[in-house]
Amino acid sequence: GVTALSRGELAHRVQVDARNEIGQLADHVNAMAARLEAARDRESRAVAEARAARDRLAFLAGASTQIGASLDYEATLRAVAHLVVPVLADGCLVDLADPDHATRPFAAAHVDPAREALLQALHAGSDEVHGPRPAVAAFHSGKPELVPDVTDVWMESVSQDARQLDLLRRLGLVSCMAVPLVARGRTVGVVTFLSSSRRYGSEDLQLATELAQRAAVAVDNARLFRAAQEAIRQAQGAIRSRDAFLARASHELRTPLTSALGNVRLLRKAVAGSLKEPPDALIAVAVRNLEQMAALIEDLLDASKLAAGQEHLALAPVDLGAVLASSADVVAAQAREKGVTLDIAPGASRPVLGDRLKLEQVFTNLLVNAVKFTPVGGRVQVSACVEGGAAVVRVRDTGEGIDADELERIFEPFYQARRVAADERPRRRRGAGLGLAICRQIVMLHGGRIWAESEGLGRGSVFVVRIPGVNAGERAA
Using an 8 Å Cβ cutoff, are 173 and 188 in contact? Predict the structure, then answer.
């Protein structure tokens, strides 16, 4: 009996041991299967990540090609808005930096035309006063902003009014991110990505940032190209102006030189006894022409030094009343000879910080012109006053007047306004046309302004000079 019992126990034990071994083997197999499944999952994830990385690189490569295809930065930014839709976003907004270092709406795109209209309405009504919008925050911080979950509370916080809140709700946003466009340390704009179908994560933000970096470089290159083109145009314009200046100067010098040479030759014949005409008239004409040339050469030198920034002012407090009186003395005889009344009323002008000789040059030129272009029996009035802390002088005449479209051009070198109506006497010689250009340069060197006013031909004109007072000039310095 004992033997049979032992055998039974032994069989039981064998069965238990077998079951245990089978269980252990099953556990081992299950563990192996789990590890194999995990390996397969890792492999699948790795393949998916590799494909995603490949897709991102392909997208960035294609995007770089498209956004770099144009040297027009506005076209570049519009391309960005349409590139991200629908690959990275259902909707996209682009804001640009303005001169006041704020953002302004520029472009909007959406996969759904109806929602694009909503997006454009939302974009057009946005400003920086209310916020904080992600685009505004990204623009001022220079760092991307990620809103993984767009909630109704968040939409209320960024809406400026009920209308904007309604537009946001109708867009059905789920997630959004705003990425600044930064080039050479300067933020030139912001791209906002809007999703109505998926929530953005860190990988999406990284891809958006890489795209924004490429777009910012393209925009900066386009702006540099535009600036270079503008510089070239300005240089070409300066060369054309220089050539025109030299041609006009040569012409203005040639006329009196030819006349002076002709009269000198006649004078030589008169001295030799081969010409019976009295030499006094010849000498007077020659001297007049030589004086005219000397004055023109002096104007040319002044204009060239002012344009080159080589003219230096001897600044000191100057009494404008004394300057106006001195300038009036220069033209008084000319005014009396012509029968023009010269009325100087310095008024309550204040001292200015200026170069007295240069200021006398300005006002003498203005008075000479006023007398020259005022008919017999006319009047030239000079008044001075204080306006906004600056001294303001007005030289008013009852002369020929100036067309409205020429009020600015008369300050260009060699430009001469059409100041005599077509039905009046033929035009007389008016000079080279450098005086007002020189006056403007001198006034600008003093930190002031000069401009002309007129109601038209035959209705007189007013030249206004505004120069900062001593205190204002000291603050400006």
Answer: no
- Cα–Cα–Cα angle for 12, 15, 21, nearest 5°? 140
Adjacent-strand bridge partners of 397: 380, 461
Q: What is the mean pLDDT of residues 400-414?
A: 83
Give the list of residues 6+ apart from residue 105 with CB closer than 8 angstroms, or none.
93, 95, 123, 124, 126
Q: What is the mean pLDDT of residues 234-257?
A: 68
Tokens coding 297: 């050469």
Report how far apart the first and last C-alpha atoms of the chain are (Å, whole number).
Answer: 125
Q: In Å, how far are 91, 114, 124, 162, 189 from 168, measured between CA atoms?
A: 12, 13, 13, 10, 22
Count of Cβ atoms closer than 10 Å to residue 283 Cβ = 14
Beta bridge partners of 393: 384, 465
Q: What are phi and psi of 106, to 5 degrees?
A: -125, -50
DSSP calls for 48-63: HHHHHHHHHHHHHHHH
Q: Which two tokens stand for residue 173?
A: 């946003």
CA proximity to 79, closest of 69, 89, 88:
69
Identify the sign of the CA torsion 19, 25, 31, 36.
negative
User: The whole model's pTM is what?
Assistant: 0.49
CA dist list (Å): 151 to 165, 171, 174, 294? 12, 12, 8, 81
181 DSSP β-pair partners: 189
**Selection from 394, 387, 395 nearest residue 468 by Cα:** 387
φ and ψ at 452, to 5 degrees? -120, 150
Q: Which of 410, 413, 409 is nearest to 240 (CA)?
A: 413
Average pLDDT, the chain: 79
Asked if 89 and 194 count as a contact pair (C-beta separation under 8 A), the reply is yes
Q: What is the largest CA-CA distance in the chain?
A: 179
pLDDT at 363: 93
